[in-house]
Amino acid sequence: MNKKNGKYLSTGEFAKLCKVNKQTLFYYDQIGLLSPILKNEKGYRYYSIRQIELFFVIDLLKDLDMSLNDIRQYMQNKSPESYLSIMYQKKEEIVKKRQEIEMKEKFIEVQIALMEEASHLDFHQVTLEQLPEATLYLSRNIENIMEEEFVEVVSDFINELNVSHLDTGYPIGVITKREQVLKGEFTNYSYLYIEQPNPKEGHPYFHTVKGDFIIGYHSGDEKTIHNTYKRLFLEIERLNLILGDYVFEEYIYDSVVKNHKEQYVTKIMIQVDQK
Question: What is the CATH number that goes with domain 8-78?
Fold first, then answer.
């Protein structure tokens, strides 16, 4: 073949440069997506070096989940305007995917930190600690609701977290008010919550008060949690403290890492004040 009028590449050479097999190029030609610029009388096929960039654009669009049929439609009706429109659309999709990946990365980082911290905890120990102010995103009020409605609230809350991108990777906890705790209604929660280390504007938040908390751990499910509360109340009494406004509970170990409820561990944080 006379190559004086331009640089031509055989199918094998073009496939090697594009890092694909020759069958891919044959298929693209068959469906009208990318055809050789020349075919000689012996059936040999040749591509122009200028077609390499075109292949890379096709490969990019395919990687960005654009169907071969849609790519082919563009190839048959090319224009600067339609190409620019596709690029803008794909840029938006990439930005969204990057944000989703960054959120997943932060979620994983938090999960690693929580599990590493849990591995060093003494679940038999009761401590008095000063906790800093925290920002929480709350569910709607769930006091005195029936079990069926509680499931609905949990579902709605998780949906809110997903839609508003508020799932920070921290455990979903529960808040119980002082009145319920004093009555022994330890599972009559007031709200679900999730901590928000970097609060976003435009959302209603609950801000916990910096202060002292009695912290202990309950092993098992909620049916026996009253025994742990009794132990914590004895410690509050021993330290000559009184119960504060709220109690916070978070799972340390739940169904994600344990197979049986008897192995679950709940962190209980009781706000306390001086008498």
Answer: 1.10.1660.10
